Structure formats: structure tokens, C-alpha cells
Amino acid sequence: MLALASVADVLGLPGKAAPISAIGLVKRIEVGLPIVALDRVANLVAPNDSQFKYRLVPRATYERRKGRKVLSAEEGTRLARLARLWSLAIDVWGREDDARDFLFRPHPMLEDRRPVDVVIQNEIGAELVFDILQGLKYGSAA
């Protein structure tokens, strides 16, 4: 299992003094991740695409959320899924540019779909991408 501290770090959640637990992360998502976490993750994953965050949260919804300053549980779940993927991709590839190249390049094991698109779509798709990355990390075919 990927270290929760790295996922929390990607999300920009505080945790230096007291590391976040699995249930702590679930609770943070349930009560609403801060909207700045969306901006942070989008900037890490797609720094040259100012519109990328709207793939996770539609623009009109994003504008409404800015007033409340937190994401819904569903939006937070999608964001945490992407943060987990980013953290694993960095772990596997070692460099942000290489991780981005993997995420945004069509992959034959995903019927030539981009891993980032599959992850954003739903949890089952995300598990397929995680399996590919785990295979790369631990040496099986991917």
C-alpha cells in the first residue's frame, strides 16, 4: 500500500507533526478537502494546463465551491484517487516529467486510453492503472 503520508503531501494536507491515518484521510474527504488541494494536485499533474482542474470539478461547480472553500465528498474522492496515482507514478518513475509522460500517453493495456483519463473516470479504471504501475514497480509485464 502506498504511504498515506505521500498522498496527504500531494493533497497539501498538514501532517508533519502528526501523520495522517487511513481513517483520518477518509474523514478529511468526507468533511471536504480544501479547494486549494484541487489547485495543488492539478498544478502538480498538469502544470501547463490551467483547465485540467475542471476535468475533476466542472468550472461552475468550482466557482461555487470557492465560496465554501471545500470540495464535496465525491469530488474529494476523485481528487484523492488522482493524488494517489500521482504519488505512485512518482514512486515508479522517479521524475515528474516521466510520471506525466506515462499518465498522458495512451497505453495499450488500457485500449490506448490515457491513464489519467481512466483514473478520473471511475474507481475500477483507477485500479487498472494502479495495477499497471504496480507491475512496473515490481517487475511484471506492463
Short description:
This protein is an all-alpha fold and 142 residues long. Helix content is 68%, strand content 0%. The two termini are 19 Å apart.
Explain the layout of strands and helices.
Blueprint: H1 4-11, H2 22-31, H3 35-45, H4 53-56, H5 59-68, H6 73-93, H7 96-104, H8 115-121, H9 123-138
Helix pairs in contact: 1-6, 3-6, 6-7, 6-9, 8-9
Number of helices: 9
Number of strands: 0
Task: Outline the biggest β-sheet.
Answer: none
Rg over alpha carbons: 15 Å
Query: What number of domains?
Result: 1
Order of H and E elements: HHHHHHHHH
Helix content: 55-70%
Q: Can you tell me the residue ranges where pLDDT is under 50 for at least 5 consecutive residues?
A: none
What structural category characterises the helix and strand content? Answer: mainly alpha
Question: β content, as a range?
Answer: under 5%
The shape is globular
Oligomer: single chain
User: How confident is the prediction overall: mean pLDDT?
Assistant: 89
For the terminal residues, how far apart are their CA atoms? 19 Å
